[in-house]
Structures are given as structure tokens and as C-alpha cells.
């Protein structure tokens, strides 16, 4: 097994280059779920599946699946998946590396005429990134029955309803409020992903075997003040929604910094999205909408954060000039990866001769959702300066090929344990 062979390196590079071109031209790299570029990338991926002889389908949650059927009659399936959508002005590797690595594993299996005792399915999970409907991981939440009517009926800023988009791409939104029955046939869900942090690069380690993924919570905050003339309303007569919002932003940042030190576990919080109305230089901001993103491995730190933030908002509502409303809009719990699969990923990395560590993820992933219903585990490969969710995101193809070798080794190991 040699995934550093030139043919595999060129294959991985070629596919990443192909996808890189499918971006909003004036805003690289942007391929938002359901956008024109996303549809273009989906047809590209469909033809890649077909070239590899995979059976192509779209499931009810809009995941694009390519199946390599076993020659042995079986319902068992091993899934290797990730995502090809991006955040706005994102990178060329986040999610993409995992889908391309899966394609390369199948290419290798085909070239070597290997028959597996289970079906092998490549998944492009629908819309992993947080989108304009304020929900991430649409495809995997759908698979496990975690999309409720409230989420499915949401409109985005252009007035498009999420369930209509899922149906348009080939899904069936009516069936998404309970887990899919195929879940019981899953042997393992595997994912390769770039680390999106600096640990592997700094320690010069080839492979990170992921042990846990933190909880992710998102809250919308609406601050209502009073718009007015910026030249005539005196400073002590204002209800400036942006000034009040800036106090919340600073409070959140300080609170998260303190709790991250106290908790000793992964704890970060960010306000990265803010809309100011009417957003004009000569008008006092009348209304602000923001989204708070919170990642926490510790349940008690998360609860403490929410408690303190709610208290602060209550106090500001009582004493300030603006009305603040905070709503929980998304939650994914802290999860641990399947212990047997973690062990097997470690052994696979060792046997491939690659240095490795067991580590915790900082980012969220589709595998987190799947791990709630099926054995699931993932590996990280290094990325340059830990940068991700930005155009500078970069991973060496040789590093991705090492991860691909570990993925294949893992499939091989699952095959031999399935046969025993
Ligand atoms: C996924 O990209 C995340 O936001 O963690
Ligand atoms: Mn990702
Ligand atoms: Mn991402």
C-alpha cells in the first residue's frame, strides 16, 4: 500500500484543484451550500463517483452518496465522508480534503481489485458549514433525525425556506424528523479532516486521532434601540443599538477568556456575525442582530457561561436604553468518538509508520452528529499555521496522502475484523 505514489499524489492534487475553481469568482473560496457553485461542485462530484464505478444516489437529507458495493451480499456499510461546501471566503481544504481522500481510497481499492465484506459509501454530507439559516451539518443532522420542523421551516435572508432547498437538491424534507433506518447497518463512519489548528504542525506530528468534539451552541441576539439623526440627538438622549452590542461583544470575550482558563478544557466563544440597521453613517443604529458561537467541552462551564451572560443581559435590559433579546438557535452536544475505532485508527497510523497523537477537536464536524447513533471516529492532518475558514488555508498534499493511507489501512482492518 503506497499512498505516497505519484499517481495518488497527482490524483489528490488534481481533485483539490478542480474544486478550487468552483468558487464565487470575486470572493475566493466561496461555495455556499445550495448556491450555483455548490450545484456545480455536486455535479462534478457525481461524475467523479461515476468514473470510479460507484452507485450514485442522494438520500432524504440531501447527502450525495457514492457506493462501492461488496461482491458479498451484505447490508453492512462503512462510510467515509466529509463536505464540499465552504464558509464565505473560506479555504480549499476544509471538508474537501476528506472527500478527495475518500475518492482516493476507492481508486486504490479498484486498482487493487479488493473485495470488502461490507459496502463502502462515500458521503458528501450536505451543508456542513454554518449557513444563512443558522444551522450547520444539515445532512448529518437529517440522517440522525435531529432536524425539527422549526429548523426546516426557517427562511434565510433572501426568504428561501430550508426544506424547499433540501427538496430541490434531491432530498425529502418530510422524512427528516426521525433517524434513517440504514443507521443500524453502519459498521463505522470515518472522516479525514485538516486539523484547523496548530497542534500537529507545531509538534511535527503526521496524524491526529480525534478523541472528542466539543459542544457547539449558537445564540441569536437582537438589540433594539431607536434610530435617529446622528447630528441632532444629543449623546445622553440616545438608544444606540450598536453601542449596547459592543458592550455585549466585550462581555462575551472577557467571560470566555476567564472560563477557558478556569475550565482547563476546550472553551471558546465568538461573535463573528453582526448586522447593523440601517447601517448608515448619519443615522444612530436602531437595531443590531448578532450571532454568538460557543464551543465547550465542559458542560458545567457552558452552563456557567449561559448563566452569566443571561444575567448580564437582564441587567442591561433593566438599566440600559435598549431592549436585548437572546435566543438559542442551534446546539450540538459534546461527544466522544468510538473508543474501539480510536484505538484502531492509532494502530493503523502506527502500522503506516506515521507519528500520531490522540487529540481533541476544537471545530465541529459531521462525525460529531453521526457518533450519537453509530460508531464514528476521525483523523486530522496538519494545516499551515493552523489557518482555516480563510483563503490562506493550506495543507500539503503529501500530508493528506498520509492521512489517506491511514484511512485505507483502517478500512482494511475493519474488513478483517468483519470477516472474523
Ligand atoms: C465547522 O466548520 C465549525 O464551525 O466548527
Ligand atoms: Mn469542515
Ligand atoms: Mn468549516
SSE inventory with pairings:
Elements (H helix, E strand, L loop, with lengths): L5 H15 L15 H16 L3 E4 L5 E5 L8 E6 L13 H16 L7 E6 L13 H6 L5 H4 L9 H7 L17 E9 L4 H5 L3 E7 L1 E10 L3 E2 L11 H23 L3 E11 L5 E2 L2 E10 L2 H21 L3 E10 L2 E2 L2 H14 L3 E5 L5 H5 L5 E6 L15 H23 L1
Parallel strand pairs: 3-4, 3-5, 5-15, 6-14
Antiparallel strand pairs: 1-2, 2-4, 6-13, 6-15, 7-11, 7-12, 8-10, 9-11
The site of one manganese (II) ion (MN) has 5 residues, from loops.
Spell out the CATH superfamily of the largest domain.
Answer: Zn peptidases
Name of the level-1 CATH class of the largest domain: Alpha Beta
Helix-and-strand structural type: alpha/beta
Relative helix content: 25-40%
CATH fold-level label of the largest domain = Aminopeptidase
Overall structural domain count: 2
Total DSSP E strands: 15
In N-to-C order, the SSE pattern is HHEEEHEHHHEHEEEHEEEHEEHEHEH
Give the name of the CATH architecture of the largest domain.
3-Layer(aba) Sandwich
Q: How many angstroms does the end-to-end distance come to?
A: 22 Å
Shape: elongated
The overall pLDDT, averaged over residues, is 97
Heteromolecules bound: glyoxylic acid, manganese (II) ion
Q: Strand fraction band?
A: 15-25%
Please mark out the parts with pLDDT under 50 across 5 or more consecutive residues, or reply none: none
Radius of gyration: 23 Å
Helical stretch count?
12
